[in-house]
Amino acid sequence: MKINSPCCITPRLLAGVKIGNGFISIDYADGCCTSDDRTRYRYWIDAPTFNHYGEDIESCAIGGSLQGRLSDLLYFLVAVAESYAYLHSNGRRVDNLHLFQDTITQWAYHHSDELSSLAYELDRPEGFIQE
Hints:
Layout: E1 2-3, E2 8-9, E3 15-19, E4 22-33, E5 39-47, E6 50-58, H1 66-90, H2 102-110, H3 112-122, E7 129-130
Antiparallel strand pairs: 1-7, 2-3, 3-4, 4-5, 5-6
Helix pairs in contact: 1-2, 1-3
């Protein structure tokens, strides 16, 4: 595997990105295929105040890559950050607040510009994580 900036090898020795003083790492899940042949991924969000593990990201029907699913995860974090901002400016709950725990939502809110920028950059053609 070859990793190019803005991606890096995280402290978990996996492909990922550095966000503020935390890291997001991604890998293929054990037994990585679902019953409908989609690839399943696992990820970690490691920040100074919490560690989060998830295994709820899958590829589309035509497959996927670590870079593509990392980009998807970043966009989910951006969505929850935008929902959090909307809640605090308008006092109304919106759909995406349920995606992550409150600690992660607040962390994403504080790093939303960086998450958004990295998600956009990783959404471009493959090449940052070459498998």
